[in-house]
Amino acid sequence: QVQLVESGGGLVQPGGSLRLSCAVSGISFSLYSMGWYRQAPGNQRDLVARITSRDSSTNYADSVKGRFTISRDNAKNTVYLQMSSLKPEDTAVYYCNADRDVYRNYWGQGTQVTVSS
Predict the structure, then answer these.
(1) Would you say 113 and 10 are in contact if contact means Cβ atoms under 8 Å apart?
(2) Does residue 11 carry a pLDDT above 90?
(3) Per DSSP, which regions of 31-91 are E strands?
(4) Interatomic CA distance for residues 101 and 7, integer angstroms
(5) CA–CA distance from 54 to each of 25, 29, 47, 58, 74 (Å)?
């Protein structure tokens, strides 16, 4: 059974930091590209950051470049999202995604991040 379990969300003040974690089980983690997506109420789910399986290259949404960092630990089957200089517009449910191909694509249940004073 494939499981992606996010943690680390919560309430933070503008300018603050959070680190999200996604623990993965049931798949060969190192073979999957991993991504973080977010969805605010009334909006579509958008890519925040992605890290590849092959060489851990990364890409980011323009809105988070320079503030967020995605990383992975293949020994721990975990992907992280370090978020700094958080803004109210970063408020959303953040989802972890594991992607290998169209048939092997999995989602976590999401974790709420709220940026507010």
Answers:
(1) yes
(2) yes
(3) 33-39, 46-51, 58-60, 68-73, 78-83
(4) 25
(5) 19, 11, 19, 11, 11
Decide: helix, strand or coil at residue 23: strand
The CA distance from 73 to 104, in Å, is: 20
Contacts of 115 (CB under 8 A, 6+ apart): 12, 13, 14, 16, 86, 87, 88, 89, 90, 91
What integer is the mean pLDDT of 2-20?
A: 98
Q: Which residues contact 19 (CB under 8 A, 6 or more apart)?
A: 8, 80, 81, 82, 83
Asked if the model's pLDDT at residue 59 lies above 90, the reply is: yes
Q: What is the pLDDT of residues 43-56, one digit of tens each?
A: 999 999 999 998 88
pLDDT, residue 56, reads 86
